[in-house]
Specification:
It contains 6 helices and 11 strands. With 244 residues, it is α/β, with parallel strands linked by helices. The protein has one domain: 3-Layer(aba) Sandwich (Stationary-phase Survival Protein Sure Homolog, Chain: A). A 9-stranded mixed sheet has the order 3-4-2-1-5-6-7-11-8. Strands 9-10 form a two-stranded antiparallel ribbon.
Amino acid sequence: MNILVVNDDGYQADGLGILVRALSPFGNVYVSAPKDHQSAKSHAITIRSRIETFLTDPIFGSQGTLVVDGTPADATRLGLKVFNVDFDLVVSGINYGQNIATDIFYSGTVAAAMEAKILGVDAIAISAHNTRLPYLYDETIKLMDEILESKIYQGSGILNINFPKDTFARPKGVKITNQGLRLQHAEFVKSERPDIFHIKSSIISYQEHPESDVVAFEEGYVSITPLQLDRTDYAKIKAIMQEE
């Protein structure tokens, strides 16, 4: 099995190294990662400027490591192109910080996986509230073994996986979840200069569905949320058609 590992935290991120080592028993692992930290870049791609790339010393467990001076989606595109390999799977992560609920719309980690699926390769995004959790390596191997054996990563969309809220206790288990409602609210606050703002963040919580990724995250479970490329609101189409 040929696996491309990508991320949005940059090629020197701890979570990337953990993921590469965890995936290496399952096949030939290659890495394509941004040169610098690219969190919250969502699905941005570079279209009007050149993208510098270079090969660096392979991350331990990988066959080759490509560094991309671009966005997470750029890293996916170039990784699939530069390596002379037919990839079976792209895995994005392990992101430092959870990507649950509406986080997915801003997440470079999720977007890098989505870009792979757009290009026809099955993909998984993995995030953790803290990539320094002592159990993360072992639990990632265990989780990926189950996912690869069951082949639940195959299909029309991607899997978005999140390890639970920061705790040194191992996860209670794994839940298949839906996308939650929680919002990351950004308040723009003026600095000493009236033309410069800084962002003050907060979380807006809602009554969540018991099977949501938010509830799983808070209760200590790994969440696996299937996400699809098709954003069409079919219920809305049906409602509109019935009104006509």
